[in-house]
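Students often ask why we bother encoding 3D structure as a string. The short answer is that it lets us treat folding as translation between two languages. Here is a chain of 390 residues written in the first language.
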Amino acid sequence: MRKLNIGLIGAGFMGKAHSVAFANMPKFFWPAPAMPVFKTICDINPRIAEESKERFGFAEYCTDWKEIVNDPDIDAVSICTPNNCHAEIAIAALKAGKHVLCEKPIAHTSEAAKAMAEAGEEAKKDGVISMCAYQYRRVPALELAKKFIDEGSIGRIQNVRATYLQCWSADPSSPLSWRFKKGIAGAGTLGDIASHVIDISQFLAGDITEVVSTIKTYIEERPVQEDGVDLLGTVKLGADAKKAPVDVDDEDLFLVKFKSGAVGSIEATRNAWGRNNFITVEVHGTEGSLYFNYERLNELQVCFSKDADDRRGFKTIYTGPAHFHGEVTWNIPGMNIGYGELKTIEIYEFVKAIVEEKQPSTSFAVGYQVDKVCAAVARSSTTSQWEVVK
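And here it is in the second language, the structure alphabet:
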């Protein structure tokens, strides 16, 4: 079986997720398209890098990502760093002939996102794969929703309503991690989580062409974090901690128009007490409706207009062996996947794309399209007008 030597850059939360997914992929998708081999893991913190080498089973560790990019033995690079590092690492890796999986959002500025998309298109000519990690569209229930839409089961889409609500940054004592710094993250909620539901909405209903938005920052300063580790609000600092300004958004609310003529609304915030990972999407068509809630990710709610009047309403389909990837995950309807399995499905698509020399569904070009929508949302928040997605 073909082997792929993996270099992973960034050993934090997402580095853990990628490491587990690479390790699990052959355990679910067997025979695997190729066997990942854990070659080198990188983190700027030497202690974390060395510890992660042992914890995740890599042969080597380093603190300079260039060692991975310049290593001729490494075939694929997984980028799990803060957003402002994505472009430099990804472009260098692609030019070195490495396949690249990069966490979302694609980059911290539109200029960097465009450069990454162009680098991906150039590398594609040589069979090199570039992929953005928009994993949520790969939930089997959402793939089933896409199947129903494509086959015409709900008719022509008229409206899409999507939300992504979290609460981990609702507490003002949550520290000022890199996710609250525009120079590193590029944006706050908009790039961090709204980008996910923008991608899901475009996956289901096609490209968004215009937006009008409102953006709010509720907590304008936060206590300074002592180190660079991002713990997603699980640590609170005391009232006497030094504070610094927040220069990114806490909430984004916008109306959208799709190329197809459909309309919709998207809301995202990290300040919604009681909402942990509340991703929802509801699609209304001329012949029926679909509803998905990530907190019940093995379910899809469906309603078809052709049902008899006395029994029309939403019913629940529990995804399992009869649905996407159901034969290789936990093949019991209603419990077939969780977050770990979802990242494993993502890694499977990445490795399969490499072997087949076929760009994945979330190529850098797709990541750039999401970025262009985010840029239009940001512009509209200052002009208070409809803005075209350029």
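Translate back mentally: The CA atoms of residues 330 and 336 lie 4 Å apart. Keep this in mind for the problem set.
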